[in-house]
Amino acid sequence: QLQLVESGGGLVQPGGSLRLSCVASGFTLDYYGVGWFRQAPGKEREGVSCIGGRAGSTSYADFVKGRFTISRDTAKRTVYLQMTSLKPEDTAVYYCAARLDYYCSGSPRDFPYWGQGTQVTVSS
Questions:
Q1: SS3 assignment, position 117
Q2: CA 68, CA 32: separation in Å to the nearest integer?
Q3: Over the stretch 51-110, which tens digit does the pLDDT of each residue have?
Q4: Distance between CA 63 and CA 111 in Å, rounded?
Q5: Looking at the DSSP assignment, which residues form a beta bridge with residue 50?
Q6: Residue of 22, 23, 34, 60 with fewest CB within 10 Å of its CB?
Q7: Residues 63/38, Cβ–Cβ less than 8 Å
Q8: What 8-state DSSP symbol labels residue 15?
Q9: Are 60 and 70 in contact (CB under 8 A)?
């Protein structure tokens, strides 16, 4: 059974950093693209970053470029999202999601498998 479990969220001050982890079970990362998405209260879920299967090509939403870095450890079946220079507007529930495809997508509709989410709150 394919499963994703996120961790690493929490409360951080503006300008701070957090690293989110997404542990996959039931599949290998080589064949799946894994994306990070977020949803703030009253807003739609939006794509943050994605890492493709096989070659591990990456993509980022414009609002996180230069601040967030996605990476993976295929042996540990884990995808990371390193977040730096956090802003209050980054506050949201962050989800990881997977799809059976080598390529990334920024649309939540393209991902059938989802984790339960982890809360990130950026506040002083």
A1: coil
A2: 21
A3: 998 888 999 999 999 999 999 999 999 999 999 999 999 999 999 999 998 888 889 999
A4: 21
A5: 35, 59
A6: 23
A7: no
A8: T
A9: yes
Q: Is 90 exceeded by the pLDDT of residue 38?
A: yes
Residue 102 CB coordination number (10 Å): 15
Asked if 46 and 36 touch (Cβ cutoff 8 Å), the reply is no
In angstroms, rounded to a whole number, what is the distance separating the alpha carbons of residues 119 and 28?
A: 26
Q: Tokens 């394919």, residue?
A: 2
φ, ψ (nearest 5 deg) of residue 66? 85, -10
What's the rounded Cα separation, in Å, for the pair 114 and 57? 20
- Tell me the H-state helices in 1-124: none
Query: 29 — alpha (psi -120 to 50), left (phi > 0) or beta?
Result: alpha
Distance of CA 14 to the CA centre of its chain: 19
Question: CB atoms < 10 A from the CB of 106, how many?
Answer: 15
Q: Which residues are bridge partners to 39 per DSSP?
A: 93
Amino acid at the residue 92: A
Digit-coded pLDDT (tens) for 99-113:
998 888 889 999 999
**Which tokens go with 46?**
């939006």
